[in-house]
Write a structure and sequence with these properties.
heterodimer, A: mainly alpha, 10 helices, globular, B: alpha/beta, six-stranded mixed β-sheet, four-stranded antiparallel β-sheet, 11 helices, 37% helix
Chain lengths: 290, 268
């Protein structure tokens, strides 16, 4: 006979469980996160090991390079141009208030080279390519294509991950340089032709603020971003849960996690690279050579 | 008469995914050339068993020996080499979407013998003819083929390396009765032409009785007594018809019994 009172295990355990249950849940979340981190590290290690052991199939590599590099160029160029222009729009009034509008070129170029170029190219790559890679590999996992590869004696990491990882790693510097170039040109064009800043002053200041190190700085960052996107996206695809929802989640989490890692890495790389700069050139204060 | 050598031996096999027990205490010996059907309810671990046999899933306990070698002790590279001797036909064929049918069929050969693969269109055509497909499908993508054609391409791909043992995962699921029987005939013809050992996972009793020499039935662990082995039947198709075990008989005849009530009460 039903009493009409539903059994609630938490109510029965009383006040102690009120405090211990959240701790238990927190503990399991921490354990799961550590497990995932360990899994990603092993996955990255396997990828690097296969990269060193055997070169990927040339046809697969070129196909991935085309998808990842060539098809990303238009969107990276377009967003780079707009970011350069937006930087000019946002900075112009403040610089003008101090009569420093001719210095805009230096700010735009340096910001594009060191920060916005690499981060923008990486974000576009994570959004356009990372989530697509996770969805593609996720679908292959769900439809047993990855198992089929293994069953035929092929290594899925060597066959599927290495070409994608290598394409991300090799092509992101070019995409970054393209984003920077378009941002610099877009910003300069807007300042000179729309804001009527004197071209000679603009270019002299633009050059004086920027050095080769800034380009190296941006490219080094981009390589780390590319490796992170490649590994995280492929990992998410490989560990996709069953069904259409699983594939969707893999694609979303590939982008979100890549983006969070890009921002986090950006901070630590900026600090680290500045320290390296100060160590190599201790007398320099990173100020423009006017 | 000398008994045929066992090509595959499974002993005391357990598989767990985290806390979930999927396979319990499976022991099985398959002689060379035998055709075995593994039957059982959905979710009882048939596909997991098939994938454990080829090393796609590592056992939690127990051993899988293929041709006298313990596969569960092999590392990934050794397993990859040994898998050339297996052919695996997946439930939904698992053809590579990004490749044409020709590329799919030649994939294993290209992977292991790239030089040979270049001049081996004869091999591809003979495999295609063996599964009864026209050469016009070679340039198509898997998405352009019907379910039955995809399964036949999957079989052609599994045969291209001349395997010693063929594993079929629900080969007739999702096909109409005629196409199901075509696949049954193909499995029988493949077995006699290539002299391979076959292990098939299926729900289709008609297919199991027609193709297999031996039927092994797994029972869901949740329904077993503590420590009871998961294999509840191991015999010939003739024996399964006469079995007195109600659990086996219920599955064989496809009777719901009191399952609906159990499901409504949340017991299953």
């Amino acid at each position: 006979m039903s009493t009409g009172i539903e059994y609630n295990p938490r109510a029965r355990r009383g006040l102690v469980s009120y405090f211990t249950d959240p701790m238990t849940e927190l503990g399991s979340v921490v354990l799961r996160s550590l497990e995932t981190l360990g899994d990603i590290t092993l996955f990255a290690w396997q990828t690097l090991k296969w990269l060193m052991t055997r070169l990927p199939n040339r046809e697969t590599l070129y196909n991935n390079m085309y998808q990842i590099g060539v098809l990303s160029l238009p969107v990276v160029a377009l967003t780079g141009t707009f970011i350069g222009i937006i930087l000019a729009v946002q900075s112009y009034n403040q610089f003008r208030a101090f009569g420093l509008e001719t210095q805009l070129g230096g700010v735009i170029n340096r910001t594009m080279l060191r920060e916005l170029g690499p981060v923008l190219a990486a974000t576009m790559l994570a959004g356009r390519v990372g989530s697509a890679m996770a969805a593609e590999l996720g679908t292959m996992r769900v439809t047993e294509q990855i198992d089929a590869l293994s069953s035929m004696g092929a290594n899925p990491i060597q066959y599927l991950v290495v070409p994608r990882f290598l394409s991300c790693l090799l092509l992101i510097p070019s995409l970054t340089i393209m984003a920077v170039f378009c941002g610099v040109v877009g910003g300069a064009a807007f300042c000179i032709f729309h804001l009527n800043i004197d071209m000679q002053h603009y270019s002299r200041n633009a050059k004086s603020f920027v050095e080769t190190w800034d380009l190296i700085y941006g490219v080094i960052k981009s390589v780390f971003f590319g490796a992170t996107i490649g590994i995280l996206s492929c990992y998410r695809g490989f560990h996709c849960k069953a069904g259409a929802e699983g594939v969707g989640q893999a694609a979303t989490s590939a982008f979100v996690q890549s983006f969070v890692m890009i921002i986090t890495l950006d901070l630590f790389l900026s600090i680290g690279l500045d320290q390296i700069y100060n160590w190599i050139w201790p007398d320099s204060l990173m100020l423009p050579k006017v | 008469m000398v008994a045929a050598k066992n090509i595959l031996e499974v002993s005391d096999l357990d598989v767990r995914f985290g806390r979930q027990e999927v396979l319990r205490d499976i022991s099985l010996s398959v002689p060379v050339g035998q055709s075995v059907a593994i039957i059982g309810e959905s979710g009882c671990g048939k596909t997991v068993l098939l994938k454990t046999l080829i090393g796609l899933i590592r056992p939690t306990k127990g051993h899988v020996a293929f041709d006298g070698q313990q596969l569960d002790k092999f590392n990934d590279q050794q397993l990859a080499q040994e898998r050339i001797r297996f052919g695996f036909v997946f439930q939904n064929a698992a053809l590579f979407d990004s490749m044409t049918i020709a590329e799919n069929i030649m994939f294993p050969l290209r992977q292991h013998h790239p030089e040979e693969a270049r001049g081996h269109s004869e091999e591809m055509h003979s495999r295609l003819a063996e599964v009864g497909l026209p050469t016009s499908v070679l340039r198509k993508r898997p998405a352009e083929l019907s379910g039955g054609m995809r399964k036949r391409v999957g079989l052609a791909r599994a045969l291209v390396m001349h395997p010693e043992i063929l594993l079929y995962d629900e080969p007739t699921t999702g096909l109409d009765p005629i196409m199901s029987d075509v696949i049954n005939e193909l499995m029988m013809r493949t077995r006699s032409n290539n002299e391979v050992t076959s292990i098939m996972v299926t729900h289709d009793m008609k297919s199991a009785s027609k193709v297999a020499d031996r039927i092994v039935m797994l029972y869901p662990i949740a329904r077993l007594e503590d420590d009871e082995p998961q294999v509840i039947f191991d015999g010939t198709p003739a024996e399964i018809e006469r079995t007195k075990d109600e659990r086996v008989s219920q599955f064989y005849h496809g009777e719901a019994g009191d399952r609906l009530e159990e499901m409504s009460e949340g017991l299953v």
